[in-house]
Amino acid sequence: MNPSFTNGCYSCSSKKNLLENFRVSLLQNSVHLVVNGFFPSITVKSILNSITEEVLDHTGTFRNPQDQLDLIVKRFKEDPSLELYLLIHNLDSQMLRGDKSQQILGQLASLPKVYLIATIDHINAPLVWDQAKRSLYNWLWYETTTYDPYVEETSYENSILIKQSGSLALSSLTHVLHSLTPNARGIFRLLAQYQLENKDNPSYPGLPFQDFYQQCREAFLVNSDLTLRAQLTEFRDHKLIRTKRGADGVEYLLIPVDAGTLTDYLEKDSEV
């Protein structure tokens, strides 16, 4: 990789497996961070948190993302041994395409020892960057047609919680869950709490089914994995959760809703 450029991949097909194969083949012995830009709760703040906490081992707090970015820039400039490969799936996602987010990510990409590899999918994605941001990124583009379908990247689109936002999403979530049994709401609450605990992890894959089953058993919410699976099927029917199987064969559970709405729901639910 040429450190003077940001490597961008574009095509009308999924590039997730392509980047994952690159990571597994070439980055196992390098410090790297994977960001799933299509995840509904991803924020530039969570990306910065992962860099300061996991790469720089910094435990302090910051007044705002710009202060956090300033520390990252300072540390990378002072320590020539620092090196980071940053892989971002869907840099042009709705969650990351904002002006401030792109400005911060562009500044990260401009650091000599931060190697950004990103994918874009929207046909008008280049319109996100003005001349100043294009200079920060200094793109080197690759046409990477894989013919893979957009499975994971589009898996959140049919959720009522993604189509709506703010108070409307909270209202829908509350309405659906209040139509379920107290046990079902308890199961959902456990999953929501765990997801919020990991909200600052941009590569969080979800809660493994077996771990979740153990938590539900300890909370006396289910007595068998069949009972839990039946409840999860009902959640899926209501589009409250989604499941995916990782490369390791583990089944992961996710709630496709932003962290703010989940927090509001748990606060409201605790008052009932």
Structure overview:
- There is one protein chain.
- The protein is of the alpha/beta class and 272 residues long.
- It is 46% helix and 14% strand.
- The chain has 11 helices and 8 strands.
- The strands form 2 sheets. Strands 2-3-4-1-5 form a 5-stranded parallel sheet, sandwiched between helices. A 3-stranded antiparallel sheet has the order 6-8-7.
- A hairpin with a 5-residue loop joins strand 7 and strand 8.
- Helix 2 packs parallel to helix 3 and helix 4 packs parallel to helix 5.
- The longest helix is centred in the C-terminal third of the chain and has 16 residues.
- The chain is globular and about 55 Å long.
- 30% of the residues are buried.
Short key terms for the protein model shown above:
272 residues; alpha/beta; three-stranded antiparallel sheet; 11 helices; 14% strand
Question: What's a quick, concise take on this entry?
Answer:
The protein is an alpha/beta fold. The chain has helices at residues 16-26, 44-55, 65-78, 99-109, 131-137, 160-163, 166-178, 182-197, 209-218, 225-237, 259-271, and strands at residues 6-10, 32-36, 84-89, 114-120, 139-143, 207-208, 242-245, 251-254. The strands form two sheets. The chain has a five-stranded parallel beta sheet with strand order 2-3-4-1-5, sandwiched between helices. A three-stranded antiparallel beta sheet has the order 6-8-7.
